[in-house]
Amino acid sequence: MSRQNTAAGTGDSGDELLARYSDSLLGVFGTPQRVLVRGSGATVWDADGREYLDLLGGIAVNALGHAHPLITSAVSSQLSTLGHISNFFTSPPQIALAEKLLTLAQAPSGSKVFFTNSGTEANEAAFKLARRHGGTSRSRIIALENGFHGRTMGALAMTHKPSYREPFEPLPQGVEWVPAGDAAALRAAVDETVAAVIIEPIQGEAGVHGHPDGYLEQAREITRAAGALLIFDEVQSGIGRTGAWFASAPAETDAVIPDAMTLAKGLGGGFPIGAMLTFGEHASSLLSPGQHGTTFGGNPAATAAALATLDAIEAGDLLSQVRRVSAHAQQELEELDFVAEVRAHGLLIGIDIAPSLSGAPGEAPSAGGPSAAPAPAMVAAALEAGFIINATGPHTLRLAPPLITTIEQIQRFIDALPEIH
Ligand code: PLP
C-alpha cells in the first residue's frame, strides 16, 4: 500500500484514497463513502470529479460555504502577520471576536469569553464552571433527555444517549436527565442541590427538535429561583443557523440570557474554534485564571476566520435569507407524501420519513425490511444523486447547509427527493 505524500485529488483515485484512509486512520464513523477534494460555496467535488450540493455543511459548520474569499483572505493575511501564540498571550482578532460575541449575545457587563477549539471543549469548560458554582453543596447537574453535548468525559457525562456513554463508564457523576421541553419536570428536578441546568435550545443530534414556546424563559426563571446556573449549548444552533444569531434569541422575541453559552461549529466558518461565554460578574468569576486552559484556544488564525464569518453574515443579511429559505423548505417538504414531519429551524432542518408499508395499509412494516430504516438508505441514495445530507436516526434526515444556500439550491434537492426515496 502506497504511503507517499500524494496530495488528495492530484493522483490517486477515490477508491485508492479510501483504502489508504482505512489503513491509516482511526475512523470514528467508519469509512466515508467519498473523498472530498475541493469546494466552492455550497458545492463540493470528490477525488473522482463528481459534484455534490453540500446540504450538511460539515455538520452545521460551513456558515459561508466552502472557500469563501473573505475567510481565506482573513486567514491568509493573519497567518502571514502572526500565527500561533499560545494562551499566555493575546492578539487583536481574539479581543475583537470576544467583544463582538458579547455584543451579539446581549451579554451584560462583567461577561467574558473563553475560547476553545471545539464544541465539546466548550462544554467541558461549562462543566467545570458548573462544578465551581456547585462546590460541595450543589452536586447535581440537570440535562435533557436526547441531549448531545460531545464525547469527551465531562461532555459525555451530560450527553444522554446510553450507547455513547456505556462503553466509557464510570463517567463524572451527578448528571440527571429530565424530559426535553417539559417545564414541570424541570421545576420538579431543580432545587438548591443543583449546580446547573444545560439545555440545547434546539436539539440538533436528536433530530432537530425545538422546545415549546416559553420553555427557555421558564428554565431561566426556575434556575434563577433555585440559584442554579443556566447553560445554553448553542454549539449547533448558534451563529445564524436558525435565522437569528442564537436560537435562544429568536427574531422578534426577547433573548433569554443564560449564565453561560457554548458555541463552536458555525463560528469559525470552517476553522476549528469554540467558545464559552459567561454572562455577568458571578459566572465570569467562577473559573480563576489557570483553572482551565488550552494551548490553541483563541489562536489568531481561527479568531480571524470567525470575525470574517460574523462580518459576512451581517454584511450579506444572511439571517433574513436563512429565514426565507427555511420557510420555503418547510412548506415544500411538507407537500411530499412520504414526509411525516418537517422541523425547519432556520437552516437546521429535521425531516421525519413516514414508514412505508410493505404489507396492506394498516400493517406494520416488516422488521428489518427495506422500510425499517429509510433515512440511512436515503442518505446513500442522495449521495449517489449528488446531495450530501445525513440521518440522525432510522427515520430522520437532517439538513444543515451553509447559510448562503439559496431557494433554488434547496428546491433542487426537494425535486430530487421522491427519486431518492
Ligand atoms: N454540542 C452540541 C449541541 C453539538 O451538536 C455538538 C456536535 O454535534 C457538540 C456539542 C460537540 O461539538 P464538537 O463536535 O465541535 O466537539
TrEMBL record:
Entries under PROSITE patterns matching the protein: AA_TRANSFER_CLASS_3 (PS00600)
Summary of subunit composition and partner proteins: Homodimer.
Cofactor: pyridoxal 5'-phosphate
InterPro entries: AcOrn/SuccOrn_fam, Aminotrans_3, Aminotrans_3_PPA_site, Class-III_PLP-dep_AT, PyrdxlP-dep_Trfase, PyrdxlP-dep_Trfase_major, PyrdxlP-dep_Trfase_small
EC assignment: 2.6.1.11
Chain residues that bind N(2)-acetyl-L-ornithine: 151, 294
Protein name (record): Acetylornithine aminotransferase
Signal peptide: none
Cofactor note: Binds 1 pyridoxal phosphate per subunit.
Binding-site residues, pyridoxal 5'-phosphate: 119-120, 148, 233-236, 295
Coiled coil: none
Catalyzed reactions: N(2)-acetyl-L-ornithine + 2-oxoglutarate = N-acetyl-L-glutamate 5-semialdehyde + L-glutamate
Note: May also have succinyldiaminopimelate aminotransferase activity, thus carrying out the corresponding step in lysine biosynthesis.
